[in-house]
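Reopening this ticket.

The earlier resolution said the output was attached, but the attachment link was broken on my side. Pasting everything inline this time so it's all in one place.
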Amino acid sequence: MRTAQVSRNTQETKISVSLNLDGTGQSKLATGIGFFDHMLDQIARHGLIDLEITAEGDLHIDGHHTVEDVGITLGQAVAQAVGDKKGITRYGHSYVPLDEALSRVVVDFSGRPGLVMDVNFTAGMIGALDTQLVFEFFQGFVNHAGVTLHIDNLKGHNAHHQCETIFKAFGRALRMALTPDPRSAGVIPSTKGCL
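Inline output:
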């Protein structure tokens, strides 16, 4: 089983992440930001990742530290659970629609952190989540998971729909990339011999 438990404690946040990459999509989420919990649930459900996240952050200031630090801690947990990456598919991609919105996410478990995100949210806030923090979440994730991630919202007028298609597509892309490839069992999917 590819599992991990990671904690991150700073003067700004206290984060705990537990996950199973070979799960069934169950989640227990408590970040203090309801819409953010809803988005993390999309990752679990559509990535078939069992995911538990608790976060206590300085929400009396704003959500920045909480959202960013959850991204960091989740990235660390995914990297730990994936291990040496032998036998994984490595690349994953997904297009997800929701009514008028459509997003594309492509991920590479390359070992090189990189984020390219082209999303023009039509609202500054979705519930209690500042839409600027979506970038901060994914930046924290890629830096600590060691992945290259491209996120494009291709269409959308409703910010809730835009954001939800991004997180659903991210979950689906993770699922594809992390699925074991029976034709390359025990092999690192790189001509370098390491990732």
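Reporter confirms the inline version is readable. Residues 159-178 form the longest helix (20 residues). The beta strands are 3-9, 13-20, 27-30, 50-57, 91-98, 101-108, 114-118, 125-126, 129-130, 148-155.
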